[in-house]
Design brief:
This protein is mainly α. It has two domains: about 5-110, Helicase, Ruva Protein, domain 3 (Orthogonal Bundle); about 120-245, Ypt/Rab-GAP domain of gyp1p, domain 3 (Cyclin A, domain 1), CATH 1.10.472.80. It has helices at about 1-10, 20-25, 35-40, 50-55, 55-65, 80-90, 95-110, 120-135, 135-145, 150, 155-160, 165-180, 185-195, 195-200, 205-210, 220-230, 235-240. Its main location: cytoplasm. It holds the Pfam family RabGAP-TBC. One of its GO terms (molecular function) is GTPase activator activity. Keywords: Cell cycle, Cytoplasm, Cytoskeleton.
Length: about 250
């Protein structure tokens, strides 16, 4: 909706959209990452018909190619195509999608798109720490099955849950994350685990359930996340909030 698009632009500080700047970037020669980008883009939200109808593969390629041009200090990394998808779907124009996506990456989660995915791995470690505090029984059961967050939660952390259907619920969750801090996605993932905890604890091979999380229910996830925030030590909460853009121990 136009309201969501405007709100995201305000939250991201992306109200100034310079068309000439984007046109210049989008019409330059192909970057060294072009082949890798095109290998990923056609798979982006491939099962979501509304996304496929509204966002073309060419739009995704242009936006990502522009972002990894020499003018920016970023290279293309795994998951960047999925992170761009909500912006192309939500914004009225490709230009506005590029500007909001750029601000999102540069200022809100730059460590998530480093070549080593430093912020993602930091988030996964924090997920284990938080789960042990918030639900010790579930944490210990998953640990007994050799299931750490690195194994079962990588896609959800990497994409800020954009890999979990349906897209309309992802957008509602991103409304929350953009307003209160994208680092809270770690608690959003734990909320999804909590919503299926009984099934996980009863299953002899919980990874079978974790390969595909339940359909996203943004309202329930946000409510649970807000409860979990109150139960975390302040120092750990600070690490959660800051880890996408600042190194944390």
């Amino acid at each position: 909706s136009q309201f969501r698009a405007t709100t995201w632009k305000i939250l991201l500080g992306a109200l100034d959209c310079q068309a000439e700047h984007y046109f210049d970037l989008a019409t330059r020669r192909r970057t060294p990452w072009y082949e890798k980008i095109t290998n990923d883009t056609f798979r982006t939200l491939a099962t979501d018909s509304s996304f496929q109808t509204r966002v073309s593969n060419a739009m995704l390629v242009r936006l990502l190619e522009a972002f990894v041009s020499p003018q920016y200090d970023f290279t293309y990394v795994q998951g960047m195509n999925v992170l761009a998808a909500p912006f192309l779907y939500t914004m009225p124009s490709e230009l506005e999608a590029f500007m909001t996506f750029s601000r999102f990456i540069e200022f809100h989660c730059p460590l998530y798109v480093q070549p080593t995915l430093e912020g993602v791995h930091s988030g996964l470690r924090l997920l284990d720490v938080c789960l042990e505090i918030l639900d010790l029984e579930l944490y210990q059961y998953l640990k007994s099955k050799n299931l750490r967050a690195e194994i079962y939660a990588f896609p959800s952390v990497l994409t800020f849950c954009a890999c979990t259907e349906p897209l309309d619920q992802v957008l509602q969750l991103w409304d929350y994350l953009l307003a209160f801090g994208v680092g809270l996605n770690i608690l959003c993932v734990i909320s999804q685990l909590y919503m299926m905890r009984d099934k996980l604890l009863a299953h002899p091979s919980p990874m079978a359930l974790l390969r595909k999380l339940l359909a996203l229910d943004a309202k329930k996830v946000i409510l649970l996340t807000n409860v979990f925030i109150r139960d975390l030590p302040e120092v750990l909460y600070e690490k959660l909030v800051r880890h996408p853009f600042e190194k944390v121990n």
